């Protein structure tokens, strides 16, 4: 879902889905890298 939000340019929705992917029992660790990329893009 975060990738779809990235395609349409919705940064808030991207962040929501990346954080959700980290907050589960078996987190998707690559989401940290994607969050850093998103912050670098915004800053």
UniProtKB/TrEMBL annotation:
One of its GO terms (cellular component) is telomerase holoenzyme complex. It comes from the Eukaryota. GO terms for molecular function: telomerase RNA binding; telomeric DNA binding. One of its GO terms (biological process) is nuclear-transcribed mRNA catabolic process, nonsense-mediated decay. Residues 1-41 form the DNA/RNA-binding domain. This is DNA/RNA-binding domain-containing protein.
């Amino acid at each position: 879902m975060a990738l779809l939000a990235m395609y349409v340019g919705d940064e808030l929705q991207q962040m929501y889905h990346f954080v959700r992917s980290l907050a589960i029992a078996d987190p998707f660790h690559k989401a940290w890298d994607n969050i850093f990329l998103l912050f670098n893009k915004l800053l």
